[in-house]
């Protein structure tokens, strides 16, 4: 039993020794917060234009995905805005009418 435990401990130590390596996430030379394909205002850099558009002006697969994603964002933003504005408008009309009726009824 003791031999088995010692062997397991030795194996465990070997695993720790072998798993001691450097991991790298990202692109070498890349700076944090620096975009390669898009400027801060959202416009595309020359590298971004070549990535998302073919030389003939049609969209690449990455460009189609980007356009679709942007369209979904815009639709969600507009529909949320319309929903909130509609609810606020209805609430103002209902609350204002109710308050006016209440004041007319009880102010006499």
Task: Describe what you observe in this structure.
- The chain is built from three helices and no strands.
- The mean pLDDT is 77.
- The protein is 65% helix and 0% strand.
- The N and C termini lie far apart (97 Å).
- With 108 residues, it is mostly helical.
- The protein has helices at residues 2-18, 46-52, 61-106.
Topology overview:
Blueprint: H1 2-18, H2 46-52, H3 61-106
Compute the number of strand runs: 0
**SSE arrangement, N to C:** HHH
Q: Name the average pLDDT.
A: 77
Q: If you compute it from the alpha carbons, what radius of gyration comes out, rounded to the nearest whole angstrom?
A: 31 Å
- The percentage of residues in β strands lies in under 5%
Helix segment tally: 3
Distance between the termini: 97 Å
Structural class: mainly alpha
Envelope shape: flat
Helical proportion, percent range: 55-70%
Taking the sheet with the most strands, its summary is: none
Low-confidence stretches: none
